[in-house]
Amino acid sequence: FRFCRPGLDKARLELNENPDILHQDIQQVRDMIITRPDIGFLRTDDAFILRFLRARKFHQTEAFRLLAQYFQYRQLNLDMFKNFKADDPGIKRALTDGFPGVLENRDHCGRKILLLFAANWDQSRNSFIDILRAILLSLEVLIEDQELQINGFILIIDWSNFSFKQASKLTPSILKLAIEGLQDSFPARFGGVHFVNQPWYIHALYTLIKPFLKDKTRKRPFDLCGLSTKHWVIPQEAQSLPWGLSDQAGQGWCQSRRKDRSKRQMSLKQCKVATQPGTPLGNVSPGEQGWIALLALNACSSHLLSVSCTISLFFLLFLVQASIFLK
């Protein structure tokens, strides 16, 4: 693993943050707001703009572009951000069901770990849009931590037992909406998006959305193929996690939002744990302790599309087109 610097050193050496000219950098971004009169910039204070500078390594033009996209995304998707708090019924259900789970401990680089068990998606209970809203709301709360602005996040998605029927709801349009909201319109640094035990149709969906991903993002995801969460090695301190690396993390995050309701108006009266489809990462033996590592080994090649996956992609595209025609 690469050496991970402490927060202040990392901000200076990796993000180009200079405390001596910090206010000048912020003001340069603020001065660009006049160039976009079509967008309502509802917040322009120093602390808020600083998030965008850190997310774009203090490139002022890129930081302003991200700031503009942040508010433009909200203007274009007004329904998503109505009653944008945890006591909204849709967001509340998603958080209660563990979308997302947020682990208490961080990885060895100080990044916060978000965990999703895809098979727990009850489509009669939660829409994909509400799950996306819950993720965005969680990120809004987490990004207030300056260390996370610097260190970033890791997203782990376990696709074990995720059915084709469930996958059929992941249309290109809503996947594009999610990518725009998370990649192009939010000031977060994602150090990795890890897929675990994904079936062929998730390979195919990934191929559909790949053109919308940035080059840097395309290089980051680890294709773990048939591995499940039990193949991960976790840090020693994670053994003592009250929720473990399981979907009980959703319960812990849900309860933490309830405790914080007086400050953020995030009231959650009930927090339940959905049935877990995989093995909790906290169950690995003490002999497997160490820094978080992916034991992909030779489980799969670096290419996401094999011949069989290509055939599957054409089949999936046929089904998508057929469903559009029937509608």
TrEMBL record:
<keyword id="KW-0333">Golgi apparatus</keyword>
<dbReference type="GO" id="GO:1902936">
    <property type="term" value="F:phosphatidylinositol bisphosphate binding"/>
</dbReference>
<dbReference type="Pfam" id="PF00650">
    <property type="entry name" value="CRAL_TRIO"/>
</dbReference>
<dbReference type="InterPro" id="IPR001251">
    <property type="entry name" value="CRAL-TRIO_dom"/>
</dbReference>
<feature type="domain" description="CRAL-TRIO">
    <location>
        <begin position="91"/>
        <end position="242"/>
    </location>
</feature>
<dbReference type="InterPro" id="IPR011074">
    <property type="entry name" value="CRAL/TRIO_N_dom"/>
</dbReference>
<dbReference type="Pfam" id="PF03765">
    <property type="entry name" value="CRAL_TRIO_N"/>
</dbReference>
<dbReference type="GO" id="GO:0030136">
    <property type="term" value="C:clathrin-coated vesicle"/>
</dbReference>
<comment type="function">
    <text>Required for normal morphology of late endosomes and/or lysosomes in neurons. Binds phosphatidylinositol 3,5-bisphosphate (PtdIns(3,5)P2).</text>
</comment>
<keyword id="KW-0472">Membrane</keyword>
<dbReference type="InterPro" id="IPR036865">
    <property type="entry name" value="CRAL-TRIO_dom_sf"/>
</dbReference>
<dbReference type="GO" id="GO:0005802">
    <property type="term" value="C:trans-Golgi network"/>
</dbReference>
<keyword id="KW-1133">Transmembrane helix</keyword>
<dbReference type="InterPro" id="IPR036273">
    <property type="entry name" value="CRAL/TRIO_N_dom_sf"/>
</dbReference>
<dbReference type="GO" id="GO:0007040">
    <property type="term" value="P:lysosome organization"/>
</dbReference>
<keyword id="KW-0967">Endosome</keyword>
<feature type="transmembrane region" description="Helical">
    <location>
        <begin position="304"/>
        <end position="326"/>
    </location>
</feature>
<protein>
    <recommendedName>
        <fullName>Clavesin-1</fullName>
    </recommendedName>
</protein>
<dbReference type="GO" id="GO:0031901">
    <property type="term" value="C:early endosome membrane"/>
</dbReference>
<keyword id="KW-0446">Lipid-binding</keyword>
<keyword id="KW-0812">Transmembrane</keyword>
<keyword id="KW-0968">Cytoplasmic vesicle</keyword>
